[in-house]
Design a protein that fits this description.
Elements: H1 3-7, E1 12-16, H2 26-34, E2 42-46, E3 50-54, H3 63-67, E4 73-76, E5 79-82, H4 92-96, E6 103-105, E7 110-112, H5 118-122, H6 128-132, E8 138-142, H7 143-161
């Protein structure tokens, strides 16, 4: 993917529609199964009012990668990648992540983060959390498509609210 495609919003990410999330944590369980017992998505309950599914935002520039002294984290193509061979487990990436989504694998004692199910995507499949969410609160799409769909939804709601 070229820089122009990135700027045009072609980079796919996981988006959450908070009003749809039921706090069932099916995404966490599916992620845990996919990643050998480690869930890389977290559902946070805010003031007992609504649930917020959070995962790596694949930032560009990525504060976690900038903080990594061994360059184990880098931006490759359209995602933040982790080279486990370079990771020392120092946890600086965990402190640098503004979303608190860099994880620690207690088995390997190394950093871990959501790679949007890279292996599944290589096979043409969506991330497992997307496929598992029963309320369809999670979406895997590029920013332009997501924004367009959300604008249409907001417009419909505004028109419905008018007398």
């Amino acid at each position: 993917m070229s820089g122009g495609e990135r700027e045009a919003g072609m980079k796919k990410q996981i988006y959450a529609e908070f009003e749809r999330c039921m706090n069932c944590q099916a995404c966490e369980v599916a992620c845990q199964r996919e990643n050998g017992g480690l869930s890389l998505i977290k559902v946070i309950l805010i003031a007992d009012l609504f649930a917020v599914p959070l995962t790596c935002r694949q930032c560009d520039p990525a504060p976690c990668a900038m903080a990594c002294p061994t360059q184990a984290l880098s931006i490759s193509g359209d995602e933040v990648t982790l080279d486990a061979k370079k990771c020392t487990g120092c946890a600086l990436c965990r402190f640098a992540c503004p979303f608190g989504m860099m994880n620690y694998n207690p088995e390997s004692k190394l950093a871990a983060h959501c790679d949007l199910c890279a292996k599944r995507r290589t096979d043409g499949q969506d991330p497992v959390c997307i496929l598992t969410c029963p309320s369809r609160a999670l979406r895997y799409e590029d920013h332009v498509s997501y924004t367009l769909r959300e604008r249409r939804r907001a417009s419909t709601e505004i028109l419905r609210a008018q007398p």
